[in-house]
Specification:
Layout (H helix, E strand, L loop, with lengths): L10 E4 L11 E2 L16 E7 L6 E8 L5 E9 L13 E6 L2 H26 L19 E6 L2 E6 L5 E2 L5 E2 L16 E3 L2 E7 L6 E5 L2 E6 L5 E3 L8 E3 L17 E2 L7 E3 L9 E4 L14 E4 L4 E4 L11 E3 L19 E7 L2 E8 L6 E5 L13 E6 L2 E7 L3 E3 L40 H13 L1 E3 L2 H7 L7 E3 L2 H10 L18 E6 L4 E6 L1 H22 L1
Parallel strand pairs: 15-16, 21-22
Antiparallel strand pairs: 1-2, 1-6, 3-4, 3-6, 4-5, 7-8, 9-10, 11-12, 12-13, 13-14, 14-15, 17-18, 18-19, 19-20, 20-21, 23-24, 24-25, 26-27, 27-28, 29-30, 31-32
Helix pairs in contact: 2-4, 2-5
Length: about 550
């Protein structure tokens, strides 16, 4: 039979009556509610006690249904002689409790456990005790035996399989020593009176030395040795404190040579330039030549010199001197898979950089701060070249294209939103550069009159989206496609706006670009305006002639 569910301190008040389910209405002070403490549908011991009707009470097994009500499944005892009580409406309490049967079962289990312990004690008393009546000795011998219990019997184990103190006073061990890994604070192998100094295993196939409870040296699984660090990146890595050197080479010229021929030497102390540190490649000739010290560090100013020579100190934080190429930045990754840049940073991170990007062949000069990026020259102009051709130039008085009448300001896919100027645009109109056709034809006059009828107010869709229909401003003009269709309708161009192509009239414009299949219609308003003015003037002249 399953054990009924139990949770402590669960007691609520109730106002309902009858023999059916009872609905809890809130926890008694200092107790918990059934909701959240008792899962729905599980069986538990309950007790109902009347407060408004103290003579009514009932205990039994029940459960909480999905509506949160107490369903009385079976009655153990009640004020109705063991039958379900027909509770009168009024205040009463409902509690989760433990039935008397549970206590009886627990007492039986405890009695059975006590009987088992008594039987176990009797069995232990019947076993052979360890002997303490033999002679005592100060040391052990490898042939000594120790009697131990194995299974249901006894066996003799040679003392040599255990650590023991021999006649020489040394503790001996005949097998492989296996100890716990330990830690820096408590090494697996330590010393009497100095338990935080010794050897421990920080990880699999890794060995470390601890001194004073702190790790000082580590040998990793791949044979790397770290002194002062636990993650050596190279076969030997030494990390010292900020106030002390990690590695000290003393005596004589204080040189540290990295191979037998001193192909690379690192030195310090007195030298022809008085530097605290120098790095160079030289032969082991016992002295220095005038071409020594290709890399030198000046301790007074913290300047580094590369190629500055033996007779002059570096004049800046980084002073590079050469008769040819000064700086080259290379990357092992091909363009499109890696980047290469020269960065400028402060303690908070990168602030600007110059280099090429990792995604394509672009070259970037980027200021990541909020201030302006300054470009200045003492010469007559800044020149911008694209694909080996001069694209534009900025002088002290103007911005001009690389060559006359060769560049556009914007295009169909990249338009300027607003152009501010102190005076109007000047369109050169030199007669020497034109082949004159003459006045408008009848078809052109008819087209112009129809275009005038198309003039009207409009709002830009992007302005409506940004400002709302009531706030977007009205503009006055034409719809470019309508102008195209009118010109085509008068037989003045080959196609309508449904299939645009190059047209003989320059005020009809259409631009298309490959990205996303984009295209845009347009007009040249100055030429279209003159076209309409000429048509209006012809119409006025005709009206005046008819009058």
């Amino acid at each position: 039979m399953p054990t009924p569910f139990f949770a402590d301190m669960v007691r609520e008040m109730c106002q309902e009556g009858g023999t059916g389910p009872l609905t809890p209405t809130g926890a008694v002070p200092g107790h918990r509610r059934f909701a959240g403490a008792v899962p729905a549908g599980v069986s538990f011991h309950y007790a109902v006690a009347g407060i408004a009707q103290p003579g009514q009470w009932e205990t039994g097994l029940g459960h909480i249904d999905t509506s949160g009500r107490l369903v009385r499944d079976s009655v153990a005892a009640s004020s109705a002689g063991g039958a379900p009580v027909d509770f009168a409406p009024g205040l009463k309490t409902i509690a989760l409790t433990v039935g008397a049967g549970w206590y009886a079962a627990s007492d039986g289990a405890r009695a059975a456990l006590d009987d088992g312990m008594t039987a176990l004690g009797a069995a232990v008393d019947g076993k052979q005790p360890l002997s303490t009546t033999h002679a005592e000795v100060a040391t052990g011998a490898a042939g000594d035996l120790i009697t131990v219990r194995r299974g249901a019997g006894w066996v003799n184990v040679p003392l040599a399989t255990l650590p023991f103190q021999g006649a020489a006073g040394l503790h001996q061990f005949g097998g492989i020593l296996s100890v716990p890994g330990g830690s820096a604070a408590a090494p697996a192998i330590s010393f009497t009176g100095d338990l935080d100094t010794g050897v421990f295993r920080p990880g699999s196939n890794t060995l470390a030395l601890a001194v004073g409870g702190a790790e000082r040296m580590r040998i990793t699984s791949d044979g790397r040795v770290g002194i002062g660090r636990s993650d050596p990146p190279v076969p030997l890595s030494v990390l010292g404190a900020a106030s002390s050197p990690a590695l000290n080479a003393a005596g004589g010229g204080a040189e540290l040579k990295f191979d037998s021929t001193a192909a690379l030497a690192l030195g310090g102390g007195p030298a022809p330039m008085g530097y605290a540190l120098w790095l160079q490649g030289k032969q082991d000739n016992g002295g220095y030549t005038g071409s020594a010290f290709p890399i030198a560090l000046n301790p007074l100013g913290g300047h580094v010199g590369i190629g500055t020579g033996a007779g002059a100190a570096p004049a800046a934080r980084l002073h590079v001197k050469s008769s040819g190429e000064i700086l080259r930045l290379d990357t092992a990754a091909a363009r499109g898979s890696g980047s290469n840049s020269l960065t400028f940073s402060d303690p908070t991170g990168r602030k600007a950089y110059v280099g090429y990007g990792s995604a394509d062949d672009r070259f970037e000069i980027v200021n990541e701060m909020t201030g302006a990026a300054y470009l200045s020259t003492g010469g007559p102009s800044w020149q911008f070249w694209v694909a080996g051709t001069l694209s534009c130039a900025i002088t002290a008085s103007d911005v001009r294209p690389g060559s006359d009448n060769s560049k556009s300001l914007g295009n169909g896919a990249g338009r300027w939103s607003v152009v501010y100027s102190a005076s109007g645009a000047i369109n050169t109109s030199d007669a020497r550069e034109k082949r004159w056709r003459g006045s408008m034809t009848g078809a052109e006059l008819a087209a112009a009159r129809r275009i005038v009828a198309e003039l009207g107010f409009y709002q830009w869709n992007d302005a409506i989206a940004a400002k709302g229909e009531d706030s977007a401003r009205y503009h006055f003009g034409v719809r470019a496609q309508a102008v195209w269709d009118i010109m085509a309708g008068e037989g003045l161009c080959d196609r309508s706006s449904a299939a645009p192509c190059d047209q003989p009239y320059a005020f009809l414009c259409h631009d298309a670009w490959a990205e996303e299949g984009g295209s845009r219609f347009g007009i040249r308003p100055d030429q279209l305006t003159l076209f309409l003015i000429a048509a209006q003037e012809a119409r006025i002249a005709m009206l005046e002639g008819g009058a």
